[in-house]
Amino acid sequence: MDTRFYITTPIYYVNAEPHIGHAYTTIVADVMNRFHRLMGYETYFLTGTDEHGDKIVQAAEAAGTDPQTYVDRISRMFRHTWPKLNISNDHFIRTTDPAHMKVVQYILQKVYDAGDIYFDTYKGLYCIGCERFYTEKELVDGKCPDHDKPPVEREEANYFFRMSKYQDWLIEHIEKHPDFIRPERYRNEVLAFLREPLEDLCISRPKERLSWGVPLPFDDRYVTYVWFDALINYVSALGYPDGELFSTFWPVAQHVIAKDILKPHGIYWPTMLKAAGIEPYRHLNVHGYWKINEGKMSKSRGTVVRPLDLAPVYGVDAFRYFLMREMVFGLDANFSEEALIQRLNSDLANDLGNLFSRTLAMTAKYFQGTVPPFGNPVLPEDQALERQVQDAVSAYREEIPKWAFHKALMAVWEMINAANKYIDQTGPWELAKDPDKKGRLQRVLRTLLEVNKTTAVLVAPFMPQTAEKMLERLGVPVKALDLRLERDARWGSLVEGERVQKGAALFPRVDIKKWQQEKNAEERKRNVEKSDESQKTSDLITFQEFQRLDLRAGVVLEAERIPKSKKLLKLKVDIGEERQVVAGIAEHYAPEDLVGKQVVVVANLKPAKLMGVESQGMILAAHDGDVLKLVTTDAPVIPGGKVS
RNA sequence: GGCGGUGUAGCUCAGUCGGUUAGAGCAUGCGGCUCAUAUCCGCAGUGUCCGGGGUUCAAGUCCCUGCACCGCCA
């Protein structure tokens, strides 16, 4: 059996701060890394930041600084976030590391020498404002969607990677290795994409357009562009071509990504590896998105919960547990503070925390806080619980390698629940009353202590701090990363006579009723502040300024949905003249309900195109939380009537 | 427009190869216990399995079709 394990997260693009998506990917990788350590594997865990490209240059400019200063700052934010989440990475790579850049150049040269990189000129539609090419389809009405200007035809020469050459090889490889890309839905997506002919990949930018990158070794007028630079980190971090880490860990490489970067990892990267003469990675593991909603209790707007901020509030372990328990790997999941509190209260405080607490309390009370021997007699319920523990351990070992973390955790919790039930069945407080039953009482509490120890070991990859805390109180302190399942989850591995300590609750409960009240109070306060603010002088306008608005009453003549748009409706409105207006109200009004409705229109708004449809004005509406209500007149007025 | 996914209890979701009375957790109600963080244990429900049609002795499951939402591609 191969007992090495190499896991990577994507290197995160430093044009934004770390958010929950980054955190989940990284925590998943961390749990996997810790799990394999627990199983006795030799592991290597890599994360880092992607720091080249024009978006970085733009972001730096926007921040009023130079690219190097900017990427240093953002990269540092990532590097400092991970320890707070107890991430156990062995290395943090940056694409601006000189060593990485050298490997990128080495591989470029190698692929170039092999004839898989060629030079070609092409013509395209180029927007000078954006400094980029557009395809016909990206243009709106023949104009750049950002600058509203027609692009110019421009010829540019660039280097291309002959990706198409490896299409058939890749299809065959994916078909031969069913778990090359998993879960299956993403494998199918890649295969679907590969049914169409693959185009070659443009991998360069002329330096006059982009200087913030790795220069091509065979043409210093160019730098390499995005993916060629970024993906190579997975091998450059291991010291490719001849690093010892590379020969040890690359053969077992696994990547974790979110579904938005499936194509580069599922298609570009394997073909790049093939062209460079490197064997493909073992597995690409793809997860879904966290949909952030604020739960059904609070519909507050403008109070976007930043999930990462909740980690210190509720505890890193609770946060990690929630993410791993709540998401089925591969599928999307919902994130809300309520759901987090719910999990914390019921799974962590009530089930696990309370089991630990009552076990230790009884040990203190009946055995002066020392681990008792396995007394006698042994009854069937003892054996049943022991079996349950074995079942949980097997399920755990089986599910985690399949990335089914929720199932592994469910199995652990079945064991925890069984232990709680066992206490009820055996009633230690009754046994304690009868001195003749001391042996039985010993058996019961020792059994419980052992279950708690196994629990501590099993939750260690998910909640390392909790595991350490539990083990310390059980009198067998071990660092989470030094735990080994075979040794430390072995039944009877506690030390008889060792002192255990009750200590504070592992997971204090959160009073959800109180939390909701506070939340509501906050929200009310914010709303009051908001309306106060808007009445303050800061944004006052003069009457003359108001007069510049040409507001007119009108009546809706026609209304229809704009295809493919969720929000937009196309309206014909009579405001003395007929106007076509696009309004973002489709989520609130059905077209048929609008015809004949009195509305107020801003008539002198500069016309604009929305989804390719011209809008000559704007309909006024009032916001009420998530709800939107049209502004109308008290009674019908003649279309075109001035509103003032 | 093409391809794919999803739709199951109040909420979040499982449901294998078509096979008994459709399940779990949370939330709710009732009962029990007192070691424990007002926790734990037991019991109890509640379903148009998105709609319609078909195949079959038998359909949540397979086929066709419609609707809704989502994703990928164009």
TrEMBL record:
It is found in: Cytoplasm. It catalyses: tRNA(Met) + L-methionine + ATP = L-methionyl-tRNA(Met) + AMP + diphosphate. It is an enzyme of class 6 (ligase). Binds 1 zinc ion per subunit. Signal peptide: none annotated. A motif ('KMSKS' region) lies at residues 296-300. A motif ('HIGH' region) lies at residues 12-22. One of its GO terms (molecular function) is tRNA binding. One of its GO terms (biological process) is methionyl-tRNA aminoacylation. Its cofactor is Zn(2+). Its main location: cytoplasm. InterPro entries: Anticodon_Met (IPR041872), Met-tRNA-synth_bsu_C (IPR004495), Met-tRNA_synth (IPR014758), Met-tRNA_synth_2 (IPR023457), Methionyl/Leucyl_tRNA_Synth (IPR015413), MetRS_core (IPR033911), NA-bd_OB-fold (IPR012340), Rossmann-like_a/b/a_fold (IPR014729). PANTHER family: METHIONINE--TRNA LIGASE, MITOCHONDRIAL, METHIONYL-TRNA SYNTHETASE. NCBIfam families: metG, metG_C_term, PRK12267.1. Is required not only for elongation of protein synthesis but also for the initiation of all mRNA translation through initiator tRNA(fMet) aminoacylation. This is Methionine--tRNA ligase. It comes from Desulfacinum hydrothermale DSM 13146.
